[in-house]
Design goal:
nine-stranded mixed β-sheet, binds fe (ii) ion, single chain, eight-stranded mixed β-sheet
Length: about 270
């Protein structure tokens, strides 16, 4: 069974916090507020924190449990995994092998999407996907929905879920360790169309898509922020039954975009 958590919030670092905040205000309709050098960008269902630092770096991610038994089972699993856990008010935090801080809390949704685009997953690039996948799957209990392997069997990508949605986290093999993208899920294909119209009306070109991913089967488009991070709007992501077997996809462009051109990370 999945752990039962959903992605709630991301924190990215940037050498140009204000430029990124302005970009996300225009592209993703996020309201930005500044506290010192930091920016809080938020709208119903999606929150992005921006702090000064290197470009293309995820500082941390926050997941929320809506079920107390699921949260208790998760923290018991963490104890059994033997990883270092920091107790925080209303939650726990752990650090993954590449230094990303992951916070898990139990509680009510204080920023519900109310039908608007909802922060749903994020993706990382790493030269060592095996280590990251092992941590998230074996230590944290994320479930691998799909692997992508090349003809030699080398792991090129993995998609892991925390609830019934196909992935809350994607991991891509790449020469460079960095943040890849985040995604906001909308209710339907027509809403995705409306988002594309709105983004482009604000003078922001689509960087990838509209397309359809193989793993997850969602339709999507992506834009690129001033730091080069990708930001995605996705629709109709696969819902997975608990007994769904882990899938295996070939490493080729058609896996990442069944409709054509793909961004290959390696
Ligand atoms: Fe995505």
């Amino acid at each position: 069974m999945p752990i039962g958590a959903a992605l709630e919030e991301l924190e990215l670092s940037s050498p140009q916090v204000r430029e990124l905040a302005e970009f996300y205000a225009e592209s993703f309709s996020l309201h930005r507020s500044f506290r010192g050098a930091n920016a809080l960008c938020t709208a119903p269902g999606r929150t992005l924190k921006l702090v000064p630092g290197d470009a293309n770096r995820l500082v941390g991610a926050q997941f929320r449990f809506s079920s107390r038994p699921d949260f208790d089972a998760f923290t018991e699993h963490l104890s059994a995994s033997g990883i270092s856990v920091a107790e925080k008010t209303g939650g726990v935090s752990v650090t993954d092998p590449e230094g990303h801080i992951l916070r898990f809390r139990y509680g009510t949704d204080q920023n519900p999407a109310n039908g608007d685009a909802r922060l749903q997953h994020f993706a990382l690039r790493t030269p060592d996907p095996e280590t990251l996948v092992a941590f998230y799957a074996d230590k944290l209990g994320f479930i691998v929905s799909d692997f992508v392997r090349d003809e030699e069997g080398v792991l090129r990508a993995a998609f892991l879920r925390t609830d019934d949605e196909h992935h809350a986290l994607a991991i891509f093999r790449s020469a460079e360790a960095r943040f890849d993208h985040f995604s906001c899920e909308v209710e339907s294909w027509t809403e995705l169309r409306d988002w594309a119209d709105r983004v482009c009306a604000n003078g922001i070109p689509l960087a990838w898509g509209v397309g359809r991913h193989g793993p997850g089967n969602d339709t999507f488009f992506m834009v690129k922020d001033p730091d080069g991070n990708l930001a995605e709007i996705s629709a109709e992501l696969e819902r997975c039954a608990p007994e769904r077997a882990t899938g295996l996809w070939p490493h080729r462009p058609e896996t990442l975009n069944r409709w054509g051109v793909a961004i290959m990370r390696s």
